[in-house]
Amino acid sequence: MRKKKPVTTQSRNQNRLYQADESFAGQLQKVREKLLPLCHQYKNHAVHIETIDGRTFEGTIVDVDAGHLYLQTLSQQRAYYPYPYPQPYSYPRPSSNVILPLVLYELLVIALL
Fold this sequence. Notes:
By secondary structure, the chain is of the alpha+beta class. Helix content is 24%, strand content 34%.
């Protein structure tokens, strides 16, 4: 039997693909600390949400944890699918019971409806 080599700090650092800058990590922590109580306060309220990449959602905040806001979408939301259908073509979402987990640090705007 071959023995496994112990993993050293140096070998772990060489295998690391990404490491967040400490100041960036601190900013994310501050965002989470600000959003958690705010989102808990407005649990079961209808909201409009915009993310940092331009996506928008409307629904009801049903839960919040350390990293996610859980949004139950409204029944009349529409989704746009660019291919292979003529642009823009929209379809109503099939169910109003969809709960989307949204990452807290990706939220740009949360507004009451």
